[in-house]
Amino acid sequence: MHIFEQLESELTQKDLETMKVSAIDFLKKDIESLKHFVEKVNDEFGQNDLAFALKMFILNCNKVFDMGEYMANQKTFAEDALKTQKKDLDPEERRIFLNRWVEDNAGPYRKQVIFKQICCIDKISGEILPIVEKMIAK
User: Fold this and answer.
1) CA 47 remoteness from chain centre
2) What angle do CA 108, 14, 25 make, to 5 degrees?
3) How many CA atoms lie within 13 A of 66 on its CB side?
4) How many Å apart are CA 4 and CA 10, to the nearest integer?
5) What does pLDDT average to over the chain?
6) What pLDDT was estimated at residue 8?
7) Using CA atoms, how far apart are residues 60 and 48, in angstroms rounded to an integer?
8) Torsion sign (Cα): 75, 77, 83, 88
9) Within 10 Å of residue 121's Cβ, how many Cβ atoms?
10) How confident is the model at residue 35 (pLDDT cuts 50, 70, 90)?
11) Concatenated DSSP letters for 44-83?
12) Quick check: helix, strand or coil at residue 22?
């Protein structure tokens, strides 16, 4: 299964609503960069497709919409992995295990979250694009 198909099948309406609010907040905070990016995409690629530009902006920024939620989820995944250990770890072993887990999993997890954000933009584009157009026009 293609990664976007998998992510799309896992999204609930609640996920989409939460992502919509997070996306709008994220874009508001970086509106000047978004404006410049959209202009650049339009100029360089002759692409006047805001949905396309938004997805490329998110991919290019390599940032998650809600860093607090992202870090909490990542912590949960790391703790779940820690629980799968066959023995109790002393504090030093625990630190080493968690450091290794972050090295091995943080990058792929971030990519997955960013792809999920892009997938959400596709799914909610009808709702979010008018809001973003107004933000850019200001």
Assistant:
1) 23
2) 70
3) 16
4) 10
5) 87
6) 57
7) 18
8) negative
9) 21
10) very high
11) HH----HHHHHHHHHHHHT--S-HHHHHHHHHHHHHHHHH
12) helix
Q: How many domains does the chain divide into?
A: 1
From the number of C-beta atoms within 10 Å of its C-beta (0-12, 13-18, 19+), residue 40 rates as: middle
Residue 42 token pair: 């339009």
The range of the structural domain enclosing residue 16 comes to 3-137
- Tokens encoding 85: 């250990």
Task: pLDDT band for 2, please (50, 70, 90 cuts).
Answer: low
On the 0-12 / 13-18 / 19+ scale of CB atoms within 10 A, 19 is: buried
List Cβ neighbours of 89 (8 Å cut-off, separation of 6 or more): 82, 97
CB of 31 closer than 8 Å to CB of 133: no
The number of beta carbons lying within 10 Å of the beta carbon of residue 28 is 12
**Residue showing tokens 């072993």:** 93
Q: Which amino acid is at 40?
A: K
